[in-house]
Amino acid sequence: MKRVLKSLLLVVSMFLFIGSVSAKSKINVYLFRLEGCGHCAAEMTYLDKIYNDYKDKINIVTYEVQSGNNAQLVLDVGAAVEYDIDGYPFTLIGDQYMVGFGEGVSESQLKQLIDTQYDAQPDDIVEGLLDENVYSNLKKTDLFEAMEAEGLKITSKKSKQNNILPIIVFSSIIVGIGALVYYSRKK
Known about the structure:
The protein is of the alpha+beta class. Helices cover 53% and strands 13% of the residues. The chain has one domain (23-160): Glutaredoxin (3-Layer(aba) Sandwich), CATH 3.40.30.
């Protein structure tokens, strides 16, 4: 019975290790936008459209450029990527960016950028800047708050990350191991 228990513990350990090693982190999609900007609204609507397909890969954060200290953050982001931001929407994912949406920047380019940056898992430039704690009064929103503020219709279903399944699986493993230990000692 000890042999079975050791084998079970080894399999569970390998399963947990492989699961933790192969998992990639979500990446942040930063959308710097202007209130009332048609191209910004078009990009937000498109991000809403693809949200359910990408919700396990991305977090979408928007900054309205003319709100709070957001203008300073935009200048610093531009300096970090060595680009003088001159148009909106300005979308930053990892260490790559896109300027505009619709004219010259297509939906497929945005999806490709998300996919390549998710695979690459680069450093997050904005998080790096925010870690410096030099910004006060930043006003960030998620995609859906920004869409509501702009009066845009939300078509995707935003769901909070469901953490119950991993809890159930982990609990079942612990109970199973406990039962095996109990019954192995009973005999």
